[in-house]
């Protein structure tokens, strides 16, 4: 296993790094986890599993229930931490060409990153499904606020719900194709198709560096350096 200094050199040589982020990036900034024991997906709501509540059919057929869950369980508030700000700085410095994120909290944009592919969409934006008019996010997350637009259309978060396809996947693939290295932060790389993105670089002999507290399925792949530690403590060591 390469030392930290050797890993720094691996990331120093490439001039175009693409970053892939997952839940671990958000949880370090204070966003509740979804899938871990005790996370947002660990308990039912009105007898329904969260994955069913966040299904496109529930939004269409039971929008009041959908919004009750959204406003009760997903009304978290968090701000980008130093790791988010560092990625934005690395982009401005020309080291990072962009971020592909599985997270839906919008923190990369808030931190100042410009090239961001939100593979699963975002809860930071709402718009009318009929006319496309944007709606204020804070207002839409407030209980009692009308969930229909002036045109009569249903207002919805711009997040990919269960039962919907990942329209942004092609954008993610295009961004990864421009890179000569990948930095993976805070994802177990278990949820496909996003978990397959590192393969696009590995097949070309390009390096992938993973920082995640738990081991991932890529740990023993040739061309992969995996560091099982926190992001906040590791990023400054890699780029400081």
UniProtKB/TrEMBL annotation:
Where does the chain bind Zn(2+)?
Answer: 128, 131, 149, 151
Name by which UniProt lists this protein: protein acetyllysine N-acetyltransferase
Its Gene Ontology molecular function terms?
A: histone deacetylase activity, NAD-dependent; metal ion binding; NAD+ binding
Its domain of life? Bacteria
Among InterPro entries, the record links this protein to:
DHS-like_NAD/FAD-binding_dom (IPR029035), NAD-dep_sirtuin_deacylases (IPR050134), Sirtuin (IPR003000), Sirtuin_cat_small_dom_sf (IPR026591), Ssirtuin_cat_dom (IPR026590)
Which segments cross the bilayer?
Answer: none
Q: What class of enzyme is it?
A: transferase
The root-end lineage is: Bacteria, Bacillati, Actinomycetota, Actinomycetes, Micrococcales
The record's annotation in Gene3D superfamilies points to: SIR2/SIRT2 'Small Domain, TPP-binding domain
Q: Which Pfam families match?
A: SIR2 (PF02146)
Q: What is its EC number?
A: 2.3.1.286
Q: Which residues of this protein are catalytic?
A: 120
Native organism is Gulosibacter macacae
What SUPFAM superfamilies has UniProt attached to this entry?
DHS-like NAD/FAD-binding domain (SSF52467)
Please provide the record's keywords in A-Z order: Metal-binding, NAD, Transferase, Zinc
Q: Where is the Deacetylase sirtuin-type domain?
A: 1-240
